[in-house]
Amino acid sequence: VKCAPSNGRVKAMVIPLPSGALLTGAIPPEAAQDFKRLKWSIVALIASGTGRLWFACVEGLLGNDFSALLNMFLNIIMGAFVLKDDVHFQHFYSCLSTTICQQCAEQGMGGAGCLFPFATCNAISLAFDLLLKGKLLGLQPFGTAFLCSMIAEGLAAYFAWTSYKICRDQGASPAGQSVELEGGGYMRAGNDGSARTISPAPATGGQPIAASGSFQAFTGAGQRLGG
Question: CA separation (Å) from 81 to 84, 85, 141?
Fold first, then answer.
């Protein structure tokens, strides 16, 4: 973030972001039931969001509800990334990963790694709907679609959170079903398109890292100049 010029110089302010834990790997079987419920809550989110958009346009409420509808659209996109390996969401994810969300897909985002952000965003959307748009419930038929969308947001947030807790606790699952908990690193896509986690370099305590191999610098006796 660039600040205003001071004495002819432009100062840059860097905002540090916390290096939270990232979930990587396949979904454990213990979370299969919660993921199934999460899938149907995302389907309900899509259906109720579509109805909410339609009735908002019909009743002239699009201007009042535009920001909330945009948040729902972003939550649905995030849900598609969560369920990118699901057979019913693969085409939707493929469309997103090759168009507007290509950069996110190239960084390996999706699956269990999006569970916590997805739960948080839906909980925030639900809170804003309740606090700022509760009076719209009385405007029918928009109010019915609005109520259904809030229920879908709450269910999506809840099942995403329960799935996240199960995946977080399954760090020592068998191979092929593991969900690794990575901290301090970041994810990006490898050359084959698969996600991989890049961890920061280990601390060396201020000491130089010894060079590997047979190369040795400054060998030989040498002579002192001016002596």
Answer: 5, 8, 31
Cβ neighbours for 12, distance < 8 A, ≥ 6 positions apart? 1, 2, 3
Q: Which tens digit of pLDDT belongs to each residue from 23-62?
A: 665 677 788 888 899 999 999 999 999 999 999 999 999 9
Per DSSP, what are the bridge partners of residue 218? none
Cis bond upstream, residue 141 (ω within 30):
yes
Measured CA to CA, the distance from residue 9 to residue 7 in angstroms comes to 6
> Distance (Å, rounded) from C-alpha 84 to C-alpha 95?
11
Q: List pLDDT tens digits, range 133-143.
A: 888 888 889 99
Cα separation, 102 vs 81, whole angstroms: 11
Tokens 């130089």 sit on residue: 208
Q: Which of 3, 84, 7, 5 is nearest to 38 (CA)?
A: 84
Q: Against a cut of 0.85, is the pTM above it?
A: no
The number of residues making up the chain comes to 227
